[in-house]
Design goal:
heterodimer, A: about 130 residues, mainly alpha, Recoverin, domain 1, 2 domains, two-stranded antiparallel sheet, B: about 180 residues, Transferase(Phosphotransferase), domain 1, 10 helices, elongated
């Protein structure tokens, strides 16, 4: 049987799906298809008509695998601009597009109310479940 | 090759037979149908009879054996379809991802992270956390993110960096028909 498959240049009934089809099928395993279907449904309900690349990845990626110490350090380093150790309210305002949002966020995240977000506070925010931190 | 191929009357279900044979060989190292000559091999295929000899198969799971049995059905109509095979217990078990309550098979290449955050929850998420997650989405590396990128590229047909409802509909339509 193995010999048959190896030797014959043409085996009737050998696996014949063209390459492109194999790639598509691999990307649309049942769990992927159902995720995309859910996404489509929720997108329509929300009134949005499209989703950006970075939001798609951010939403679909497994938070448990991504929210790790080294990754959080990387973001923290990227987010803090003027203070060497902390993210300031002004950094937050730049990131989220406005003083108003920044004040709300500081109220939630800045646990010791010193006007700055240190790494511990940042980590707590990222690890907290739910939309409120 | 499948029994019906020997009679030159076959459909694509003969490929499922081939996958069954290949899976069998991958698990034990020898073929399910054999003989000293081609004629003997063909006769063995025509009977459709095979077994899982001890000790080689003693440690192979029952779901793996069931997967093979469902593919090596003499009657092509009774054989599992490609779509059914993706939902077979063995495939589902071995491709389960951590966090879905299953153990994860590191060797499997068909791995996909379950959707971690529902869309509505994501939209309502506190903006700083959302900004951090989108930054990670673009800068962190792991295999799931690579796979998500590949899926996104596939669905984003016009390659403009956003998925529209239309693109999602098209891909769901195509995705569904590829299983038929």
């Amino acid at each position: 049987m193995v010999r048959q498959i190896m030797n014959d240049s043409y085996v009737p009934g050998a696996i014949i799906a063209p390459r492109s089809q194999l790639v598509t099928a691999a990307h649309f395993l049942p769990n992927v298809t159902s995720d995309l279907r859910n996404l489509r449904g929720e997108l329509a309900l929300s009134g949005e008509d499209s989703i950006r690349y970075q939001d798609f990845i951010a939403m679909m990626m497994d938070e448990k695998k991504v929210i790790k110490e080294d990754n959080l350090r990387m973001v923290f380093e990227h987010f803090k601009r003027s203070d060497p150790d902390c993210i300031l309210a002004s950094d937050v305002a730049d990131l989220v597009g406005g003083e108003k949002y920044a004040l709300e966020i500081m109220k939630m995240v800045d646990a010791n109310s010193d006007g700055r977000i240190d790494f511990k506070e940042f980590k707590a925010m990222m690890e907290a479940d739910g939309s409120k931190s | 090759m499948a029994p019906e191929v020997l009679n030159r009357e076959y459909t694509k279900s003969c490929d499922i037979w081939s996958i069954g044979v290949i899976t069998y060989i991958l698990l034990c190292g020898y073929p399910p149908f054999y003989g000293d000559t081609d004629t003997q091999i063909f006769d063995s295929v025509r009977t459709g009879r095979f077994d899982f000899p001890s000790p080689d198969w003693d440690n192979i799971s029952a779901s793996a054996k069931d997967f093979i049995c469902s593919m090596l059905k003499l009657d092509g109509l009774k054989r599992m379809t490609a779509n059914e095979s993706l939902r077979h217990k063995w495939i589902v078990e071995m491709t389960e991802v951590q966090g879905q309550g299953g153990r994860r098979n590191q060797r499997s290449s068909i791995v996909f992270a379950p959707r971690a955050i529902a869309f509505k929850k994501y939209l309502g998420m506190q903006k700083l956390k959302k900004a951090a997650l989108t930054y990670l989405a673009q800068n962190a590396t792991n295999e799931d993110i690579d796979e998500l990128k590949a899926i996104f590229r596939k669905v984003d047909v016009d390659n403009d960096g956003t998925l529209t409802l239309e693109e999602l509909d098209d891909c769901l339509k195509n995705g569904a028909s590829n299983h038929e």
